Amino acid sequence: MYTFIEAEKTTYGVAFLCHLLKVARSSFYARLAAAKARAARKAADQDLVHEITVIHVASRHTYGVPRIHAELRRLGRAVNRKRVARLMREHCIQGVTRRKRRSLTRPDKKARPAPDLIGRDFHAEVPGTKLVGDITALPTSEGWLYLACWLDLATREVVGYSMADHHRADLVVDALKMAEGRGRLRPGYIAHSDRGSEYTSSQFQSEIGELGLRQSCGRTGSCFDNAAAESFWALLKEEIGTRIWPDRTTARAEVFDFIETFYNRRRLRKHKVFGYLTPAETRQRHQHDLAA
């Protein structure tokens, strides 16, 4: 109605049109006076949408409202979270949702698994004291590429990983050696996994003895006993974007880029004490606090 009055006021007059449409003249003039402010808000929203889009693209189109809002605040933009949600909804900018994955756990019925030292407590106060590990399979046109990872529960940083065209014990041992080689582990730390044959093998247990760590295993068939590792696989497979790679070499390169460039150093995660930080920043914050 106000737009119509504005367009026709030179022909019929404001008083007549307001009377005809049963609108108070004061309301029409108040809206007219606020036009400049509305235009400024619209321009500000357009600028904010541009910033949101840039952050969303940089996150591999994976960030939803919480991480977009956290990244904006890290960049010095004091913006309301509801405003971010509204603009993302209006412009169809969405984060990813995770999908289910197939399990690779093949328990060795003859092996004696280690006790569960985690007890579904996927929290650690200090880096290098609790690790969780698992194996997943990535599809390529050449066949499966198997990936083993070890995550530090204090930071959720991937501290060790290995890739191969098989999932024998060598795969998880190489990933553990990488975690140890980075020099961030403490004597007697816990390495938790499922009861797959790779983790109950004599080769893996021999490596555990040499490194002086404590092995922990969840129950067979219970994904919740290794939920932190399962969660990382769901995150990786959804946020990496690719569903089937043309070959194993390409898959290796993209997994390396995802872990080292994006996940460990750029992807924000909400820490219960520090707020939104990357895994690498969380480790640095822990080290700073320990030094202090």
Automatic annotation (TrEMBL):
Top-level taxon of origin: Bacteria
Full protein name: IS3 family transposase
